[in-house]
Every structure is written in C-alpha cells, then in structure tokens.
Amino acid sequence: MVTTFVFVVAAAVLLVAALIAVLKNNLVHAAMGLVVSLFGTAVLFVLLEAYFLAVAQVVIYVGAIAILIVFSIMLTRRVGAQWGNQTNPTWPFALLAAGVLTVLFALMVRGWNPDQALPAAEAVPGDVTARLGAALVNPGGYVVPFEVASVLLLAALIGAVYVAWGGRKAEKSTQR
C-alpha cells in the first residue's frame, strides 16, 4: 500500500517535472525541472529495488550532467532572456516520428523475451549488480537494446553539434 502511494506520487512529480523541463521558456526553470525529473527516476529505481541504478542515476545524471547543464546556462550571457515560444511549427511531424519509433521499439521488444535474457540464478550469485552486469554483456540479454540506445544518443549528439554550428554560421552572416 505504501509502495503504491510512493509510486503514484513519484510518477506524478516525475511527469510534471518532465513537462516543465520541456515546456518552460526560461532555461534555468527548465534545467531545474530536469533535475527533479532525474531524481524522480532515481526514486522509481529504488521502488524497483535496483539500488545500484538509483545511486548511479543520482551520482551521474543529477550530480554531474544536470549540474553541468545548470552551470553552462548560468555562465552564458543570456541567462534570464526569454527566447519566445519553444514549440516548433513542425511539432506534429515530430509527434508522428515519436509514435513510429515507439511502435518500432515495441515490436522489437515484443520479439525479445527478457526471461531468457537473464542468466540462470545458479550461474550468477544473488547480487543484483552482478546480475545486471551479466545481463548487459550477455549476447542474448540486453546488449542489443543497450547498443541501439548508444547509437541513438550518438546521433542526437551529432545533430546537436550540427544545429549549433549551423546557428553560428547564420549569426556571422547577419553581423556583416
């Protein structure tokens, strides 16, 4: 009963914070929404009894990446500047692409049986972290989804660099 209540509260806070991170015009408020949503994800990991992932979530994402984002926002010249509407006129196409990717991911997961992916209990000791590590490197385990996520993150990073460099070229051409 208590676990269900904590889950509902954590999920509600997580969803509201994620919406704030995406929809706020002020970058500092959006970054704070990101920090709260990352903490909410850590709470969900604790409820799943994945303590290693919860600690890694707090240390890596909240302690390093989110703070780096906050510092980079605060060290720029336009900290509090309102940048206008954050929604793009092509958002329906992005929603359609997200739906297609969700369906493709669901089809990929449906053909993959996670019960067979985890190593047998006698092969790996009862330590959850050891089981997680074995599942991540097991070819029948989580290796394919893990690699797909890494390629997707690399593509997002390359896209962000491309957009950033494209913006600088446009700024230089208007200054002349």
Provide key terms for this protein:
176 residues, mainly alpha, Four Helix Bundle (Hemerythrin (Met), subunit A), 7 helices, globular
SSE blueprint:
Elements: H1 2-23, H2 27-47, H3 51-74, H4 91-110, H5 114-117, H6 128-137, H7 143-175
Helix pairs in contact: 1-2, 2-3
Describe the structure.
The chain has helices at 2-23, 27-47, 51-74, 91-110, 114-117, 128-137, 143-175. It is an all-alpha fold and 176 residues long. The chain folds into two domains: 1-79, NADH-ubiquinone/plastoquinone oxidoreductase chain 6, subunit NuoJ (Four Helix Bundle (Hemerythrin (Met), subunit A)), CATH 1.20.120; 87-176, no CATH class. Helix 1 runs antiparallel to helix 2 and helix 2 (27-47) runs antiparallel to helix 3. The model has no long low-confidence stretch (mean pLDDT 76).
> What is the general shape?
globular
Q: What gyration radius follows from the Cα positions, in whole Å?
A: 20 Å
Describe the biggest sheet? none
Give the terminus-to-terminus CA distance: 65 Å
In N-to-C order, the SSE pattern is HHHHHHH
How many separate domains make up the residues? 2
Chain oligomer state: single chain
Give the structural class.
mainly alpha
Beta-strand content estimate: under 5%
Which stretches are poorly predicted, pLDDT < 50 over at least 5 residues?
none
Mean pLDDT: 76
**Tally of contiguous helical segments:** 7
Counted beta strands? 0
Helix content: over 70%
